[in-house]
Amino acid sequence: MSPVTAIADQPTRPAPGPAADEGLARRLKALACTAPLHDLDSRKVNLAGEYASYTMAEIGLAAIDLVTLNMDFDTGADRDIVLGRLLPRIAAQNPGRAVTEHERVARWVLESLINVGSVDRGFRAVYGTFGPDGEYTRRDYDFKLIEEVPGQDGGVYLRTTDEAVNVLVGALDTDVTSAQIAAEVKLEVLIRRGRLADAQLAAEQARYRTVQYAETLRRALEATRRNVRAVDWMETVPDLIDEALDHIADRYRHENAILTNIRKARDESADAEHKRRAAELVDIVKDCIRRHTQLQTRLLEAGPLFRAEQDRQAFSAPTARAGIDLYGQLLAPVLTLPLADATRPTDAFFARGTGLRTPVSVRVSDLVELLLTPPVEREHLGVELPEPDLVATPDDSRFSEAQLETALDLLDLPADAPRRLSGLLADARARGAELAEDGEELAYLVALLAVHAASPPVGTAYRQGEERLLFAVDDGTRLDDPGFGGADLIVGSALLDAAGMAADRRDAK
Amino acid sequence: MTTSAEAWAPQDAEPAAAAAAAPAPISPADVAEAARLVSFGLQAKLLPSRDAEYAELVRRYRDDPPFGRLADAVATGMGLVVLEVSPRAGMAVAAAEDSVFAVRMGDYSRRANSESTDRFLHGLAHLAVAALAFPRPEDLADDGYLGRVSVNGVDAFVRQACRRLEERAAAEGSNTDPASAAPALEAAWRVWARRSATGATKDARRLSGSTTGIVSKAVSFLVDSGFLQKTSDDAGGTYRTTARYQLQVRDLAGSAAMAELLDLGVVPVSDGTATLLPPDDSDELVADAGLPFHSL
């Protein structure tokens, strides 16, 4: 990345006041954060191939957007998801090119924003300041836009840094709560006036703020998990949780109201563009609600988490002897030292704290053999898997496939004509005799299926969008049958509104 | 801890014990047994409870003072420091400075040899593992304490401490960006903070230069030293401490690092509290909190 050295070119003059200097430095830093994006477009000529027709800065900004929106409460955004969602935009820029090229562009942009080549995987800009005595000093400003964080599953996830969020939306470095309230009031007003384009912008901004709010809380809870004592559970945390729960309750009510309003706008609007925007807004607000719900779950878990951590961390018998306070007396002071000094204590700790290694001594005869042994080829796919020794399990099912088919055929009742179980059983026995089979067995299977239908799997049918469902109802009539006892169930088929359910499911998502 | 001076001065050290044991001449067989005990001690992962011969030698060391002194002498002669001989830790020996058993930074990581920032990061990783394994002073003092650390936990712990320092610097209004001309004057916390926590690599291995990569190298090295035992793969690898690690940190490493700090003119407060907590808020937290206050 090219260093930002604008100030260095200015003519020498008396040092401006410290406040002005600080403001300048802050603006230079903000400017530096955009540099990696501009840099994308200036570096694309170095790529082997014809990449001039891609606008890399746009893709870069979209990537930062995607990472921010896909950031989860616990982990970051999944790299593959981000890359996948980036593709449509890249493809739109250059539809004629191969998909592999689009993928390459997506990876290149993401890796450039992480700055994979550097040791720190970050960026550095240089700027200058005047000291109190008027002395000019160049300083290094280190920052990251997208950082890679370890996930629970050991994978690598992406998170956007504060700097990136600031580049992206700007002026986010404000009080989150008030900023969100302002955005939502604005949103409501805009919707009422039907200015959906503006409303969408406001809603998107509100969503970014929600994400940032969640991030603040995530950090707080994580600190608790590491060390209970470090967090004030007498006042600060309970207050924080109450505040956040109130906040969520408030926002939830708010956003549901907005949702109702926009839905109305979506359904009543005659203008297609209007409709589309309203539909997009519905999605955004739903996402906001989802994020609030997620946050709320975490907040409710906070209390039990504290108690569990307290059990784990706090109850250990105090001992008379006091050891060294490794954090307070060593780690914390070391971190504040300049690098050159800090290396001395860490070196000393390393020399004494890593244990010992027994030196390896080699005999010449071993060495010769060792050197002459050809290197073992490392298999990419690992060792060959042994062919599994499969034993055919005996088919011990009570009913055969044919019997099940017959039984289901018997139970394939028209929706408007439910039948009594007793009649069905008689039919089954007759059918069994017809097919020269054991009619009793078939009747047993029919009875089983009917009993099963007494508690029909409504949820499954709903989720799978089935069109009909077998049900059985007990109306109090006793079953008079030589083989079975109990209620003479009424068995019937219910038709389900598959299309309506599908629409419901889509809405619920 | 037994020093070479004691070991080589039996007549001054314990005249009563020597008289009671009716001074038997030291036979070559005794020396062989003493050396055998030391060789067990060098196998850091071996515990007396797992090996009958080892257990017997440890028992003899404790019951038979002349034999104990002989074993100490063998260890000292080989450039080892005896930290403790007990059934729980076995013969816990550490390498004396410049001994052939000592680990050198250059052998540990080639990059650390040439890059001062990497050298610092590797050293700090070891310090941080110990600090998180024994968060309170009494954890280090209590022989029965088992510490638990995870790779991601150590990284997060250091980052949290760095963030606190960053916030403090920001509150004080000081500019911590280092002068380009003097990188060695950069505050140490910034070095850790700006190194990426992890990174995707082509072969799905951990990025060795990232902070979790550095911590992970430290813990696996400590596992080989018999200082940690892996308990699970959660959070980048979760480990528990062994008695030997506690001894090593308490009796050697901690004080060595502390001596360097004092030498630099940094005098860490002895009650371990004042520097850690923010100037505002609650006295509630001060009680034995040797840990960073995580501001909310």
What would you note in describing this structure?
The complex is a heterodimer of chains A (509) and B (296). By secondary structure, chain A is mainly alpha-helical. Chain A folds into 3 domains: 1-172, no CATH class; 174-311, no CATH class; 401-508, no CATH class. Chain A has 17 helices and 8 strands. Chain A has a 3-stranded antiparallel β-sheet. A 3-stranded antiparallel β-sheet of chain A has the order 6-8-7. In chain A, strands 2-3 form a two-stranded antiparallel sheet. In chain A, β2 and β3 (136-143) form a beta hairpin. The two termini of chain A are 42 Å apart. Chain B is mainly alpha-helical. Helix content of chain B is 51%, strand content 8%. Chain B has helices at residues 4-7, 10-13, 15-20, 28-42, 52-63, 65-77, 105-108, 110-114, 116-133, 137-141, 151-172, 188-194, 211-224, 243-263; strands at 80-86, 90-95, 148-150, 228-232, 238-241. In chain B, the strands form 2 sheets. Chain B has a 3-stranded antiparallel β-sheet. In chain B, a hairpin with a 3-residue loop joins β1 and β2. In chain B, α4 (28-42) crosses α6 (65-77). The interface between A and B is large, with 83 and 119 residues.
What gap, in angstroms, lies between the N and C termini of chain A? 42 Å
Q: Biggest protein-protein interface?
A: A-B, 83 and 119 residues
Q: Mind describing the biggest β-sheet of chain A?
A: 3 strands, antiparallel
Would you tell me the structural class of the helices and strands of chain A?
mainly alpha
The major β-sheet of chain B equals: 3 strands, antiparallel
What's the number of helices of chain B? 14
- Overall outline of chain A: extended
Strand order of the largest sheet of chain A: 1-5-4
Structurally, the number of domains of chain A stands at 3
Structural class, from helix and strand content of chain B? mainly alpha
Approximately what portion of the residues of chain A adopt beta-strand conformation? 5-15%
Helix content of chain A: 55-70%
The overall strand count of chain B is 5
Helix content of chain B: 40-55%
Please write the string of helix (H) and strand (E) elements of chain B. Answer: HHHHHHEEHHHHEHHHEEH
Number of helices of chain A: 17
